[in-house]
């Protein structure tokens, strides 16, 4: 079972462990138009590997190969991130099934659930917790 970790605790884990990585599994469009976690103060960048390929949203058949090509090993602590936590959970499950032993899902993702007005980024998730992020 993949553990959901709230974004603030993920940040603490990234600070504590220089080997820990964030793998953002959203699409190119989301990275470019919504933003990405800013890990520069920790001396790293998020690993950007789409779980689904825009615009067809077909599953990325090379996802696991891309993880390895990015230098992530089965022992690397990897915190998977998407918009709200669903795609990242699927990606973490696939990584675990492939032998990655320290995989986690970032609860509520980058933007979190919808607020009462139908907007994301204010109720939960990376952005709502005030963690560093940037536009690309």
UniProtKB/TrEMBL annotation:
It holds the Pfam family Rhodanese. SUPFAM superfamilies: Rhodanese/Cell cycle control phosphatase (SSF52821). InterPro entries: Rhodanese-like_dom, Rhodanese-like_dom_sf, STR4-like. Residues 117-136 are annotated as: Disordered. Residues 16-135 form the Rhodanese domain. Coiled coil: none annotated. This is Rhodanese-like domain-containing protein. It comes from Acidisoma silvae.
């Amino acid at each position: 079972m993949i553990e959901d970790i709230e974004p603030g605790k993920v940040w603490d884990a990234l600070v504590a462990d220089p080997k820990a990585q964030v793998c953002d599994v959203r699409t190119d469009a989301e990275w470019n138009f919504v933003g990405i976690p800013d890990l520069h103060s920790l001396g790293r960048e998020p690993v950007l590997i789409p779980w689904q390929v825009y615009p067809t949203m077909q599953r990325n058949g090379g996802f696991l190969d891309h993880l390895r090509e990015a230098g992530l090993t089965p022992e690397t602590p990897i915190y998977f991130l998407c918009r709200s936590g669903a795609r990242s959970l699927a990606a973490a499950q696939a990584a675990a099934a492939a032998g990655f032993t320290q995989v986690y899902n970032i609860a509520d993702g980058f933007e979190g659930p919808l607020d009462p007005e139908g907007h994301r980024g204010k109720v939960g998730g990376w952005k709502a917790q005030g963690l560093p992020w940037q536009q690309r």
